[in-house]
Each structure stands twice: as C-alpha cells, then as structure tokens.
Design brief:
Blueprint: H1 16-41, H2 52-74, H3 78-82, H4 86-106, H5 116-140, H6 144-160, H7 165-172, H8 176-188, E1 192-195, E2 204-207
Antiparallel strand pairs: 1-2
Helix pairs in contact: 1-2, 2-5, 4-5, 6-8, 7-8
Length: 208
C-alpha cells in the first residue's frame, strides 16, 4: 500500500500590498545603508540630511504591522515560516553597527554615523515585536479540530507507550495524511519523539 504524505492546510497567496511594502523596505534599506556607509567613510566630514531613520521606521512598521495582521487573520504559511525576512534587516544593521563601533574605537578619524544607533534600535524593536506576536499567534492559532486530534494522540501515546499514524487514523477518525501531519508537527514542538522513519505508517511516536 502506498504511503500517504502529510497534508497541510491550503495556503493563501501573499497579497500584493505585502510584496510592495517588502520591496519598498528593501529599497530603503539599501539607500539608507549606503548613506550611512558613505558618512562613515567620510570620517565625519559629510553628514547626510533629512529624517532618514524616521521614514525607514515608518516603512518597516507598515510592513511588519500589515504582515502580522495578515497572518493573524489568514494564518502563517509554511513558506513564510521557512523564509523569515526580518532577520535580514536585523543582520545588516547589527553587523554594520558592530563594525563601525570597532572602527571608531580602534581606527583613526572615523565617526559613528549620526543615525546608525537609532536605526539599529528601531530594527531590533520591530523584529522582537513581531517575534512576540508570532509566539502569541502560534499559541492561539490552532483550530479546535487540530487541538482535539493532538490531545487524542497524546492520550493514545501515553496509554500504549507510543503510537503510529495508522493507529491514530483508526482510533481517532483522522485521515492517514492528517495523522502523519499532526504527529510531525508535535515532534517539531517537542511533545513527541519519532522512533524510525516518518514515511513508514508503522513508525512509532513516543511522548517526550
């Protein structure tokens, strides 16, 4: 008998406005980073003008807020889970800030760009804010049917010392794909551990 692959809920496409805001933030990141690098290399002899950090913060907040609202309403897709873009912004600014800090203290004549600290703190604040939102969403976002299935799986695993997807399907009325998907998600969450290959319907999952 062929093994059914785990099935996940259907994913909704990313809205155009989120893709637009992402592209806008990418442009602003390169532009503002270039300005800060230029100011740093000029060793304080040139300082760019205008409220760059405020505009950047506004565009980042618009993107992060819109994305979190979308994910609270529609749920987070597996594509978005695997490829989290916020870490790119954090990495760019933190690494540059660290490099500039070292150069200012060990080099000669270098000056710390006037908005670099503000920008770095803004990016970190938005990043950790979205991480907190994600944690809350992950804790509350499961459908009642999924939660009931996982509770049943835990009960079966405790009673028998382990449970396989075939048993879950038979005892709890789930399809084989739903059973395998729920088991693998519980392994990722650290509630179960897998004994054997996940593609084998007789693979056992034990309570951690």
């Amino acid at each position: 008998m062929p093994t059914l692959e785990p099935t996940a809920p259907a994913e909704t496409p990313t809205p155009f406005y989120l893709n637009f805001l992402w592209a806008l933030n990418l442009i602003w990141t390169f532009l503002l980073l270039g300005m800060n690098v230029a100011e740093f290399l000029q060793k304080g002899q040139w300082i760019y003008q205008g409220p760059g950090s405020l505009i950047y913060f506004a565009t980042l907040a618009a993107y992060a807020g819109s994305k979190e609202t979308h994910q609270w309403v529609q749920g987070e897709s597996r594509r978005e889970t695997k490829g989290r873009k916020g870490i790119l912004f954090v990495g760019v600014w933190v690494i540059f800030s660290m490099g500039a800090f070292v150069a200012v203290n060990l080099g000669k004549g270098y000056a710390f760009p006037h908005e670099l600290l503000t920008i770095t703190l803004e990016v970190l604040a938005i990043f950790f804010g979205t991480q907190a939102s994600r944690a809350l969403r992950k804790g509350r976002g499961k459908a009642p049917k999924t939660m009931k299935l996982e509770e049943g799986i835990l009960q079966l695993a405790k009673e028998a010392g382990g449970v396989a997807s075939a048993v879950v399907s038979e005892r709890l009325g789930a399809t084989r794909g739903e059973a395998q998907y729920a088991l693998q998600e519980m392994v990722k969450e650290g509630r179960l551990k897998k004994i054997g290959k996940s593609t084998d319907p007789d693979t056992k999952y034990e309570v951690v």
